[in-house]
Design a protein that fits this description.
- The protein is α+β, with helices and mostly antiparallel strands and about 110 residues long.
- It has one domain: Sandwich (Hypothetical Protein Aq_1857, Chain: A), CATH 2.60.300.12.
- Helices cover about 20% and strands about 40% of the residues.
- A 6-stranded mixed β-sheet has the order 4-5-2-3-9-8. A 3-stranded mixed β-sheet has the order 1-6-7.
Length: about 110
């Protein structure tokens, strides 16, 4: 079994809330990716999308579809998407076992 990209219960609830607020239909999904930049070299990107692209990797959790391009998946395999909104909450967080170091804000990493 290959390592996928997973999402926690808190993140699922927040995705439902955001999709509802924006009146997104069932054809929308969460797209995660990696871009060059940030203080550690690579940064995470999270958005909503409704168009699949060639080479996209797809993961289902409950009724949430997470999609990632193949190049980004090489960095994100085994990653868990979390959401925290407490006093020290940072919003969506990527818990990435492939990251060798991360910046203080948690939005960029290096492998």
């Amino acid at each position: 079994m290959s390592a996928g990209i997973t999402i926690t219960e808190n993140a699922i609830k927040k995705v439902h809330q955001l999709m509802g607020e924006e009146n997104m239909g069932p054809d929308y999904f969460v797209r995660v990716s990696v871009k060059g930049g940030g203080c550690s070299g690579l940064s995470y990107d999270l958005d909503f999308d409704n168009e699949m692209k060639a080479g996209d990797q797809e993961f289902m959790h409950e009724d949430i579809k997470i999609v990632c391009d193949l190049k980004s998946y090489l960095y994100l395999a085994g990653t868990e998407l979390e959401f925290s909104d407490g006093l020290n909450g940072k919003g969506f967080q990527f818990i990435n076992p492939n990251a060798k170091r991360t910046c203080g804000c948690g939005e960029s990493f290096a492998v």
